[in-house]
Amino acid sequence: MGDDKLSRRDMLKVAGIAAATMIGLRMVKGANASETAPAGERQWAMVIDQNKCTGCGYCVLACRAHNDISPDITWNPVLEAGQVGGKNTYLPRPCMQCSKAPCVEVCPVKASYYRPDGIVMMDYDRCIGCRYCEVACPYGARSFNWEAFTGNNLAVPEWGEPKIERRPRGVPEKCSFCYQRIDRGLALGLEPGVDPDATPACVVACPMGARLFGDLNDPESSVSKALRENPTYRLREDLGTGPRVYYIPAVADARREA
Amino acid sequence: MFKNFRGKPVITPWTIWLGVMSIILLAGLVAGIFVFWKGLVITNLTDLVPWGLWITIDLSSIALSAGAFSLCAGVYLFGLKRYQPIARTATFVGLIGYTMAMLALILDIGRPDRFWHALVYWNEHSLMWEVTMCVVLYLTVLVFESMPIFANFEWFRKHFPKLAHRMEGVHHYSPVLAVIGLGLSSLHQSSLGAMYGVIKARPFWFKPEMSVLFMLSAMVGGIALTLFASMLANCLTSKAKVNDVLIERVAQFVRYLLIGYFYFRAWDALAQTYTYDPGRSEGLHILTKGPLAFNFWISEMLLGMIVPMFLLLYKPTRLNPFWRMLGLLLVAAGVVTFRWDTNISGLLVVMPVVPGQAIAYTNYFPSLVEFLSGAAIIAYGLTAFSLGVKYLRAVDHTLVEMEYETIQAEAIEPVKL
What we know:
The complex is a heterodimer of chains A (258) and B (417). Chain A has 258 residues and is α+β, with helices and mostly antiparallel strands. Chain A is built from eight helices and nine strands. In chain A, strand 4 and strand 5 form a beta hairpin. Chains A and B meet through helix 1, strand 2, helix 3, helix 4 and strand 6 of A and helix 4, helix 6, helix 7 and helix 10 of B.
């Protein structure tokens, strides 16, 4: 009986130590959970001028062609954003490429990750299709491939040629700031945001010049200038996700000038 | 065991039961094959509601398996040794529950061929990763904990007596397994709630009490289901032998837990009625006045908590097997409803992306394929449990396992009660 009590006490001790270890581990984990995107040399960002956007949807088509997107999915929808000064305004919504992206935090397999230049990337070969990222994204930027996209892409070749693989069935996909164009452009010595071939397709396709793209670390880039010279806002800034897409709000006066 | 298959088929309640279950399993198997073949497009899941019926089955199976860790902790760590027969049943229920959860997950993930990625590519920041690891590890613990149960299989004992003896011997490690099980379960049962609780994009979920609610409700529901299943088996077959005194005592524990769960759940909901918070208030509206109002007020609150609280607190009803069983079943059903409500209430509220735009609502109703495959997962659980009762003495309170402190003791000593 004495042995029995002793061993039970030992068990409780072990249980206590195990519980304490678990709690400790969790606290360490909690401290680590606030990881943000690494600060690489270049930090890509987009500025969208709502004064200029007419909602034509060219960016949607260019995006569809260059990224070979299924007709069921839109990476970059142009949303109606009400009227300002009697005119309709629009809000194109690419992936925000958050500096503290909920999708990267929640992904169980690190299929979503940060590139050093701030782009939130998807490893479509690693993703298990749990859709936690989709649930966690405050911007609805992710679309799941409920079925395989096997048909023709009707936006090709009129709006561009895809230079990336189609995503398989069973994984969510999203805008990547056309990383393939950026990387290829940089390899050719081009400057993203300046040279069209190195710039996201939507930015190039916009007939109104409503989209600017460039490096936040370069004070002379078009985005840095636009951010200095204009009032801007980001979507759901209250959530602390740190989006890399900035909007210049539509103003009634600016409409008249344009 | 196999005699019946050779001779003329004998129609007994048992064969009818197995027949009905086989039909549901077969229908679910066909539905499951369709899911793997056609993809998730044949479900009613959407980009707005990417988690539906299957995730509810997954969450509920894990929750209702919580009897295993709680009762094993009670028996092996807190010295409540006489409840060991109930802990054995709970372990078996837990093993079934976690395999059910695995089945639901395999259906639910878009790339079932890559399910092993979660074990290889670690994202320690992700609660989903933590839950996956804990569930896999805990399932391993449950397999070890259930070995003495599987050693009870007559045919197996006859043909592999040595192995059966070895498997019984695993029982010596029960206290160690109980410690590991307690740790892993405390982690993932609450983390399942936290999985929802950390999602800032869904204001109705975004609250710390999510993990507390999941943990508490799992313990309440898990123990209740184990007791209910034991009593039901006792009603239906002579293979199950329960000691009603033990069940009644544990049912008393359930009612106190239930009071705690009721307290937290009620406060969680009621405290959110103060002030308007975009998204959160809409979620609460869906839950208490919208499409989930019946679920919340009737299934969860009235039938899931208040009625069973009465049935288990009031001595005459608690001592009456029928009312006690009803109370325990209602508790378990209430926990399942809580899982469904929690998942859906957060997803049905669509937060606007465009500043200033109104909050929208969406809806979700599972498709036939989801229902059929979901029903088959449940049928698998029921079949496995009934087989366990029939062949593995999963519910047998007369079976006393050897004392874990005295390794040299005789293997099994049935005690007449």
